[in-house]
Input
Amino acid sequence: METKKVTFNPDKAEVWVSSGENLLRAAMQAGVHINASCGGEGVCGKCRVIVDQGVVESEQTDKISPADFELGVRQACKTIIKSDLEVTIPLESQMDRKVLAKERPRSGTWQVVTEIKLEDLIVDGKFHPPVEKKYLEITPPTITDNLSDLTRVIRSLKQTHQIGNISVDFYAVRKMASALRDKDWKVTVTLANSRKKGGKVQLINIEPGDTTRRNLALAVDIGTTTVWGQLLDLNNGEILAQSVEYNAQIGYGEDVISRIAYAQKGNGLKKMKDLVVSTINGIIKQLLKQHKVPVETITQMTVAGNTTMTHLFLEIEPRYIREAPYTPPMNYVPLIRAKELGLELADHVQVYLFPSIASYVGGDVIAGVMGSGMSRQDKLTLYIDLGTNGEIVVGNSEWMTCAACSAGPAFEGGGIKHGMRATRGAIEDFSINPTTYEPMILTVGMVKPLGICGSGLINIVAGLLEACVLDQNGKFKPGLKTNRIREGEDGWEYVLAWADNTQIERDIVITEVDIDNLIRAKGAMYAGYVTLLAEVGLTMEDLEQVIIAGGFGNYMNIEKAITIGLLPDFPIQKIKFIGNGALLGARLICFSNVLRTEVKRIFTKITNIELSENINFMNNYIAALFLPHTDNKLFPRVFERISCREKSLGEAVKE
Amino acid sequence: METKKVTFNPDKAEVWVSSGENLLRAAMQAGVHINASCGGEGVCGKCRVIVDQGVVESEQTDKISPADFELGVRQACKTIIKSDLEVTIPLESQMDRKVLAKERPRSGTWQVVTEIKLEDLIVDGKFHPPVEKKYLEITPPTITDNLSDLTRVIRSLKQTHQIGNISVDFYAVRKMASALRDKDWKVTVTLANSRKKGGKVQLINIEPGDTTRRNLALAVDIGTTTVWGQLLDLNNGEILAQSVEYNAQIGYGEDVISRIAYAQKGNGLKKMKDLVVSTINGIIKQLLKQHKVPVETITQMTVAGNTTMTHLFLEIEPRYIREAPYTPPMNYVPLIRAKELGLELADHVQVYLFPSIASYVGGDVIAGVMGSGMSRQDKLTLYIDLGTNGEIVVGNSEWMTCAACSAGPAFEGGGIKHGMRATRGAIEDFSINPTTYEPMILTVGMVKPLGICGSGLINIVAGLLEACVLDQNGKFKPGLKTNRIREGEDGWEYVLAWADNTQIERDIVITEVDIDNLIRAKGAMYAGYVTLLAEVGLTMEDLEQVIIAGGFGNYMNIEKAITIGLLPDFPIQKIKFIGNGALLGARLICFSNVLRTEVKRIFTKITNIELSENINFMNNYIAALFLPHTDNKLFPRVFERISCREKSLGEAVKE
Output
């Protein structure tokens, strides 16, 4: 795709974006504030800009008079960039130049980066899905050649595809006679483990005719808060559909400890299992509906989840996970027939589960470490999985140490007044005019806001902090002249969107309680990095790379995560955001058997350290309960920006 | 056990039997006729004998006066042999010496012979059941050694028993946490394939404490007519219990063709499967009740059945078995979880099925060939499986050819007026006084007769033929002076037991229709041997051994089977009866993994020949519809005995 340059006047802020990008998003990316309070749906009419030069696609709306339209006035949120542009921000959106920071915040790495590209797997000759389909044209039997149907199929596999040493699933045998005769002895067989060294190839399904082009996989990440699913095309690696739902277990406790407690009561374990299976069944239905294919096209399923989620999904007693000495019943799980777990998939589908490392570091982390490529690099890397259960891994291809630190559900929108997951309508990006305190908000799908997702929460708190609306304790500064800051039922709050610009017909706010939850969540994570590094005799300075995973949808503004102290103040080019690492790993492993071996290697390399009873961890945690940190020296650039802004404000006030 | 000699006077017939044998059975074995019409229950009082010398156990009954008892009179059926004996047969039982054959029938091989003895397997170091139990004492976890439960189990297996490369069934994982903690980290694990070269060892179950002594297997033979089950102790090879039921499918057709036809209609296939599964579930219940153990003690199951029975059991479409070119859907079947088939066994039990050779030669035959040892011997052998579906194999350890010839259900008591399977109350042996035509009958369990089983039917027809009561067409000779031969509702019949001596309170008879059914059954078998041998360029003379299998209970009188022409007139020491060959194979394979490899070897060696459309087979069949055969030269000794008897009778009549 072509890259276009957009210059925003009067600040001359420049940004390079893809042709076809939305102009309001481009402004956000350039660090240019434009008032916009409807999330990008076009109903508030506040994001008026003047396109001075260049080509855009933008219709005249009722928010712009014909005369203004003639002059180049456009609604930024309704404008598509088609060439290099010069754009002027109107006065009402412009920030007082005096309060602008001298150092502009660097542009964050927004888009997900995935280390393993499918193309690379193909080039290496490693693109061999663990489940393959093979088309066969079989010689019909005669009275002199009346070998059994199954023998004919096996003979043909050997002759046509040089595949031998086959074992056959008996559900496939049941379908064989009619499948062979339905389309004149032309069939497609589904093979599991067809390229695995040593082991047997399993023939798990047979269909009449040539169905090789319909070979889909299902990748699922079972999170404590949310469950993600992707429908994948095993022929070309494409993601055909994606869906996300809250884990239905959430009604029985927000964290793993309360889920385990519930599972210990009466029929609780079965209930927990049924709830998550029903969540996944719902996701399967959505995915199939989105892509309009029948369930039989799915031939394999992979699941990544933390240790507790994995145990509950399999209906395995999890109580010893939470009782000292914290031994989970199992790490590795064998392949399981999906329907034995109650999943609404075809008879022959087997479920691959990532192994759990320890009671609080699960298969989701292994999936992310594998998916991110960390385990195949020499660079000393800090891998961070942000979620209700925060997990950290430090190491490289040679060694790895991991730890868990329970962050709570804030990063997934949990425990936040208007929190929601990163789906359509979630406020995901934010900017504030430090003079007028008017917001610029962007939502997922550019529609009227419905709530705030994890990445939105980080960006809002960072924005409020840098605009000196919040102090470093996370409290609103008193006496600011705006009706957006007010005392609500939960204490002080900032109104992100007025009721008439929302989908919920109530004001959407962020409260001091929400901010406090976020500070505790990021404090636990930061304390985790510092403590884990210290345990292996390292410090932040030794790191060569930071990889961040988390279910924030597709975007995360790394710079703003540094601003609140969630990430270390680290050269941005060394930080990589991979999105949902568990889902990434679950997806990639559908395509290559070689990666199953890599997972085993990671599992044997990695050692776990318990932080829960570590005194240093508690000290580090308390020190991190501040924005960005009690020790400003750890965040020199953030601190400089805040000081500078405060100074500018002070000067502006004096004038 | 000690062997004792019994001499029956006045004929001086001698027989060697085990101490503790019943005296009436000993007489039958010696070829000595004693009138006895209540099957051995003691109620008819006809089997009075005089014990002249030796020690017996025998109570005085109301059939014997104190004075007679004092003189040595005993009821033979109530007398146990304790030493060498001299016994006199009273006048009423004695046969006219003039009608005695000059050549006494040789004593048949009665007791089942099994070629593979478990002891031999142990000596060879081959006594490794595919499913083993291992006891483990596991180190409990601590905060510094908090590996998962599963890892601890695997580590302990390696350390204690040097068993590695383990995969784990997830049902076992589900039970692991509580099993480990129930008896203080002492557990017993159940392992499948623990000695198989190459493949993975599967950990399929875990139980608290030491349960290694409770490791049972279930061997099942699914016959078209009857289903046999045995409960086996894997620790010592003992048969703990045995049970048999008619296959519940029998209500939907007596032969495989009618079953297949039914399975093709609507829900018929599922119905057929459910019926046989419910039959097996009934047998499982009986076996557990007999031996008084819970179902969890059974750790593996093996099944032998013909091709159609195997397909119906697995709910696999059987229609192409009966449609030219007669290709069964499958030969080999993978291991299947028993509960997936609806069997009422523990979660972890897997079912091993013998592979089918062709549409009409199934896994029951492979089981018998393996179990009899034929496949490991150099001798040219004819293996005969007598049953509703008769199967024949000719060959040795180097090569084997097989064929099927549908005999019909007569050998299993089917299609016979008073036919029944070889269970308690079935008439299994028979002798007739050729002068008075009074019978001597023995039943299974020595109780009042209930009906006639397959071996009884053969012995009755042979006895009637040799006594010249039947002619060689199987018709009763006219004008014999006895009320036991009469015209019944189905034509001419012989009364084996009068109503008051039976359990059914009706006369138990054998009719000419029954005899005709038997002649057709044995004719099909005999035609099969001749035709199959001719196909491979051999004749009866080339054979070095004949092995006979069949569900006749534990006894078969080979001499009498020769008499009716069911078996070739062959030196008796070269004939071996192994009882239910399918059940024998299903039992033996529970004890040794090596035998699974042997089964594979047999499967690849054996070739199948279709007799159904073979013109020679039809000619041979018609020639065999005679007692023993239209060509008397094929049965010289039988013919000599009959001629001799006829001559004696003629002389007796003249006198």
User: Anything to note?
Assistant: Residues 98-112 of chain A have pLDDT under 50 and may be disordered.
